[in-house]
Write a structure and sequence with these properties.
The protein has 303 residues and is of the alpha/beta class. Helices cover 35% and strands 17% of the residues.
Length: 303
């Protein structure tokens, strides 16, 4: 184990949830090692599908809790989602939970399915009080992710405001395909919020996950395999649950830098990305898209 990554001593009821499908440990090493280099003292749960033995062993050595699930697709798209109008009618009729869950696991694309995995976990985990739901491939922890806890509620974090929803071809595609006519026009001038980093207290997170699944099952189309980001933006900007709190990029717990111009990114003397007040942002998202930022951060971890 890398010297920066000693086993964590569990002291808190904070939990991090992420999905890892067919990824070698090398793709998640920065996530794991950077987390263990902080003072985070909570739980970290990887929902793993088709992870090889070496990856599983490295995760366990890094104090990660592993939850195996079966996702048969090679990538993130489920072939059985193709006749979505039929499945939409199926989900529109009250079904036993076990049956709806079983069908969801075979039909929903991975980015939609993760909400079901997280929901069932939280429903059975009363010991969890605060949760971070995030990607594992492009997240780097600069400090304890719960250090600057923004309070109760469901916390959504904006991307750079240079590009709004109506300016982004991906968001236009997601929202126009998933939602009723007129939805995109209503949201065109809103900033994008990222589904790759979401925080909340346990009860707000459960309400959020239930609403995301409800919106998924009612979606006009499931053609966009990564369209959960579109649903998340609709949920946030239309206030589909009451307890939503939206944060400007880099001004609270998360900095999503993939679409941020380099001159707008500030760092300290050790290369960590900072907030406008000079404090290190706890959670750095899409750091891998900025090689000048990523190189010194990865070097600190021996990567």
């Amino acid at each position: 184990m890398h010297p920066l990554n000693p086993p964590r001593i569990m002291k808190s009821n904070d939990a991090i949830l992420t999905v890892c499908h067919r990824m070698p440990f090398s793709k998640t090493a920065a996530f794991v090692k950077s987390l263990n280099a902080t003072e985070f003292a909570g739980q970290c749960h990887f929902f793993c599908s088709f992870c090889d033995d070496e990856t599983v062993e490295n995760l366990r050595r890094s104090n990660i809790d592993i939850h195996a699930f079966l996702f048969l697709a090679r990538h993130v798209r489920q072939r059985l989602a193709t006749p979505w109008p039929l499945w939409r009618r199926f989900f529109a009729v009250p079904q036993p939970q076990w049956l709806a869950d079983a069908v969801s696991r075979r039909v929903l694309h991975l980015f939609y399915l993760r909400h079901l995995l997280y929901l069932r976990f939280l429903e059975q985990s009363p010991n969890v009080s605060r949760v971070l739901m995030c990607d594992c491939r492009d997240v780097y922890f600069q400090t304890d992710p719960f250090r600057d806890w923004p309070g109760d509620g469901l916390h959504a974090f904006e991307e750079d405001r240079t590009t709004l929803i109506g300016d982004c071809e991906h968001h236009r595609r997601w929202i126009s395909q998933l939602a009723p006519p007129g939805t995109l026009e209503k949201l065109t001038h809103f900033p994008r919020v990222c589904a790759g980093t979401i925080m909340g207290d346990r009860h707000s997170a459960i309400r959020f996950l239930r609403k995301m699944l409800e919106m998924t099952y009612a979606a006009d189309s499931l053609e966009p395999q990564d369209g959960d980001q579109g649903l998340f933006n609709i949920l946030v900007h239309e206030r589909r649950i009451e307890e939503i709190v939206v944060h400007r990029n880099s001004e609270s717990s998360v900095s999503t830098i993939g679409g941020t111009l380099g001159e707008k990114i500030t760092t300290d003397s050790e290369g960590f990305v900072t907030c406008p007040n000079g404090r290190r942002v706890p959670i750095l998202h899409q750091y891998d898209r900025k090689p000048d930022i990523a190189k010194p951060l990865l070097a600190r971890l021996g990567l």
